[in-house]
Amino acid sequence: MNYSDTLNWMFSKLPMYQRQGKTAFKKDLTNIKALLLELGNPEKKIQTIHIAGTNGKGSTSHLLASVLQEQGYKVGLYTSPHLKDFTERIRINGKPMRKNCVINFVKKNNEFLEKQNLSFFEMTVGMAFYQFAKKKVDIAIIETGLGGRLDSTNVIEPLISVITNIGMDHTQFLGDSLAEIAVEKAGIIKKNTPIIIGEKQEETTPIFMEIAQKNNAPIYFASDLVNENYESDLKGIYQKNNVKTARQTLEILRKDKGFTVSDKSILNGFKNVVKNTDLKGRWQLLMDKPKVICDTAHNKEGLFYVITQLQNEIFDKLHIVLGVVNDKNLDSILPIFPKNAIYYFCKPNIPRGLDANILAYKALEYNLKGAIFDSTKIA
Question: Taking burial as the number of CB atoms within 10 A of a residue's CB, which of 65, 91, 122, 354 is the most buried?
């Protein structure tokens, strides 16, 4: 079994949320606990920081990893989904997991994975913990997939828990209000474990305060506590919030958890996130002439920041390549998009992708006009 065969087996045999949506979503932790037991409970052999939130959890994870790498630590980083290759999900000091390690893990465990009916995400979480324990990382940054309380990553006892913010996304799983979603995300708050909240929001703050108090968990609101402005190579305007969240997390890590984190490492880590971690898709400049920007914003709150920043750009013509998945509320996101752009509507190359004709027809209701293409690549 080579790498291509291994990926084909994983994608075909294991239900995957990014491709199939809700049919791949598991509502309990039974499977992941069974897998970790089979693997010798690697999650108990590593120190972790656990990060949840509607937006910014990926960027915050990479910011933290970058700083800790600058300090000289061996840092594991688990994020999802991947953009180009599966190995992006599991990194140590910025380098993706080796393909032969993926092959060996699947070859060794495929019978158990099928027998236990694990999802794709459950398998990747187990693989990440196994790899981080095997390679003896000093600390691992673990990003949740969806939600918090029932997310497969929520089997760890982290040094610090982090919730970046709460927005209206994945409502079919997490609830129809910010308060309901906050309760699900707050499921990562553990007893006697510091919890960092990135953004203070009127609807969610009382919920976080109450759950933290019940768990005797010290709670910190980064938006209130961090006043400094830091330079970063992440140029999206929305990154200011993520930098503050990472900064407060690092303060607790060095003050209360015995980690050495110098001010110099913080400055250099924030300046060199892309270099240190190879983060992609966050206001990423793909080309300068003509200027081409790529961003993975995928909900109303994230898109608002991206479109705001776009409107501040100087341009003669604005071209937007746009594709969405079929569970997005188009009536909530399409009004955000500028009407003075030329649109290239396409369908993401996954089963969940929304037909480009449907997207274009709906976009016309908001006076967004353009052409329809068979694929993102052609668009």
Answer: 65
- Please give the pLDDT value at position 17: 46
Nearest by Cα to 73 from 276, 272, 280: 276
What DSSP string runs through 168-186? S-SHHHH-SSHHHHHHHHG
If DSSP codes are grouped into helix, strand and coil, which group holds residue 50?
strand
Query: 278-309 pLDDT, tens per residue?
Result: 999 999 999 999 999 999 998 899 999 999 99
Residue 228 has pLDDT above 90, yes or no: no
As to burial, measured by CB atoms within 10 angstroms (0-12 exposed, 13-18 middle, 19+ buried), residue 180 is middle
Give me the numbers of helices (H) and strands (E) for the chain, helices first please.
Answer: 16, 13
Q: String of b and e for 181-195 (b: at least 16 CB within 10 Å)?
A: bbbbbbbbbbeebbb
- DSSP tag of 167: -
H helices of the chain, where?
A: 3-13, 17-20, 30-38, 57-70, 99-115, 120-134, 171-174, 178-185, 205-214, 222-225, 239-256, 263-271, 273-277, 300-311, 330-333, 356-364
Domains present along the chain, CATH in parentheses? 3-277 (3.40.1190.10), 284-372 (3.90.190.20)
* Cβ neighbour number for residue 143 with a 10 Å cutoff: 23
